[in-house]
Amino acid sequence: MGGTASAPLVVLEGIAKGFGEGEARVQALSDITLSVEAGTVVGLRGPSGSGKSTLLNLIACILEPDAGRLALAGETVWEGGRYRRRDLRALRREKIGFIFQFHNLLPFLDATDNVALAMTLAGTGLAEARRRARDLLDYLEVGRRAAAMPAKLSGGEAQRVAIARALANRPRIILADEPTAALDSERARVVMDLLRQVAREQRAAILVVTHDEKIFDRFDRLVSLRDGRIESELVPAKAA
Amino acid sequence: MNLALRDIRHNLGRFLLTCLGLGLLLGVALAMVGIYRGVVEDALSLPRALGADLWVVEEGTRGPFAESSRIPGDVREAVARLPGVREAGAVTFQTAEVARPGGGVLRLQLVAYEPDRPGGPPVLTAGRGIARGRFEMVADRRAGLPVGATLEMGGQRFRVVGLTEGAVSSGGDPLAWITLRDGQELQFRLAPPAARRQLAAGGGTAGTDTVNAVIARVSPNQRVEAVAEEVRRWKHLSALTAAEQEAVLTQSVVARARVQLGMFTVVLLIASAVVVALIVYTLTLDKLREIATLKLIGARDRTIVGLVVQQAMALGIVGLAGGASLLFSVKDFFPRRVALGPEEVTGFALLVAAICLVASLLGVRLALRVEPAQALGG
Ligand SMILES: Nc1ncnc2c1ncn2[C@@H]1O[C@H](COP(=O)(O)OP(=O)(O)OP(=O)(O)O)[C@@H](O)[C@H]1O
Ligand SMILES: [Mg+2]
């Protein structure tokens, strides 16, 4: 695994990102400095439009920053106006699990294969990938929907399949954009506990965007964004 | 996991409907190829059926198919005596429209030859060849006449004694062989009422032993061209080798039809390419979000290119299979021969594959330009 044991898996230094030109310019993020160590789950909150999704997309190398430095798993990925890493897709495939705000399952694959695909893309054999996909779905309590097409899944089921896909390759970095929005609070807690467990067992760094105050106690740190800046950072009081 | 096939299965109805449309287009294009080949094969069918190495015709003509040719019948003996000539036979050709026994009109290309000499029918598929007897006929199966049928021509009843398969004129009319004597009477003599009048007026039958061509078979160890040179030195005569005769037929007799059909085929293939390109492009447009998602979860470009290209290929293969099977089930009802051998079909399939490949480039370009961020919008 990249980096030394203590080095943070996600490092952002002075990251900025704007959209559009001239009058229509929106400064979505300004001077973001943040790091996430292995084994921690960080919550990102803030009002709508405060830049939470933009921040995750920058870390996933889906959006390119305007300034600053981004390092993932000990490797400087973006700095000085360009990507230092060439194959961003291999990076995503191997190091990053992404849970989207909108689940983004492939409509033509059933639940199992949506999860298995992520593994086959990373080189796992199909049979092995399917077996592990079913295990993951069982684990997320959607095992009985394993053969269902995404269109037939409820919002919460689809979200859990998407979570299974994000976990499929045991990534070191997991980025989740409102993963519990479609879930009731009971399931939301289950998902959060699962993510905490993954963080602990896989020594992963996890960033979760959420509005849901009921799960704030599940985070190791809670970062608040406002108008594209980090407003505050606190360590929530742990529930039992 | 084959994403292309999985996506097709997911939208199977739409895919099959698209294939059906494309299949019809490809079927028509393939039919054009077949008709084109058919026109050429039909044109060559007659000279090949006769199996001549050398055609002796009237001087200054490229007869007897491209231009009319008349030479005296006794040229046959002179040709037969040439060194290197194995056998020679005099032939006449004419088209005839006769009343079909069951009703309707039947167009025949008559070939009159001397039995036991070159010019007769090739392999018979039914019945027997013409004996020395008169008013007998060997017809091609295309004429739709069974062995034993009778036909009225020039006031005489001809009886069908044998059948051939696939022997037609360049116009697609079935061939029918009769004896030279019958042929000459039909062609060069006056119709019976006029002949009777002429006889009554005291005239003899008109100068008679005229034929359209003399065909010769040359011994294997003899150059046909050398024999042709020999004949060309004679007065009033001209000679064409088999190759020259075939060239005349394909290059002048059916040239217009060939060019016309060739152009149609090319236009249809271009249309198919445009259609495939558009279909693949819209299929890709419909999948932009999925493609972006694939890039998000780290799919390589080759996975994405594979998705687009394999779907284009599947479209072409299924479309072609559908179009071809449709064509093969109806082609025998076409008025002209649709000549499609394994060679034509394989060639066409390769062409369709190439077209699909090229046509999918537009879709591939689109797919490769998709930004992973496009998967995120709500
Ligand atoms: N692709 C884009 N083009 C232009 N502006 C954008 C784009 N993406 C985000 N923005 C703008 O950047 C700002 C931050 O957006 P972002 O989606 O990160 O907010 P968010 O905190 O995730 O909001 P929400 O809670 O509603 O999901 C907003 O003002 C948004 O309009
Ligand atoms: Mg958002």
TrEMBL record, chain A:
Domain ABC transporter: start-end pairs: 10-240
What keywords are annotated for this sequence in UniProt?
ATP-binding, Cell inner membrane, Cell membrane, Membrane, Nucleotide-binding, Transport
SMART domains xref list: AAA (SM00382)
**Superkingdom of the organism of origin:** Bacteria
Cross-referenced InterPro entries:
AAA+_ATPase (IPR003593), ABC_transporter-like_ATP-bd (IPR003439), ABC_transporter-like_CS (IPR017871), ABC_transpr_LolD-like (IPR015854), MacB-like_ATP-bd (IPR017911), P-loop_NTPase (IPR027417)
Cellular component (GO) terms are: membrane protein complex; plasma membrane
The protein's matches in Pfam families, at most eight in alphabetical order, are given as: ABC_tran (PF00005)
Q: Which terms in the Gene Ontology molecular function aspect does this entry carry? A: ATP binding; ATP hydrolysis activity; transmembrane transporter activity
Membership in a protein family: Belongs to the ABC transporter superfamily. Macrolide exporter (TC 3.A.1.122) family.
Protein name from the UniProt record: ABC transporter ATP-binding protein
- Native source species: Caldovatus sediminis
TrEMBL record, chain B:
Report keywords, A-Z: Cell membrane, Membrane, Transmembrane, Transmembrane helix, Transport
Q: Which Pfam families match?
A: FtsX (PF02687), MacB_PCD (PF12704)
Give GO cellular component annotations, separated by semicolons.
Answer: plasma membrane
Q: Which parts pass through the membrane?
A: 261-283, 304-328, 348-368
| Highest taxon of source | Bacteria
What residues does the ABC3 transporter permease C-terminal domain cover?
A: 263-372
Keyword Transmembrane helix on this protein?
yes
Compartment(s) where it occurs, according to its Swiss-Prot or TrEMBL record: Cell membrane
Using the record's annotation, list all stretches that form the MacB-like periplasmic core domain.
16-233
Give the bilayer topology.
Multi-pass membrane protein
Q: What is this protein called?
A: ABC transporter permease
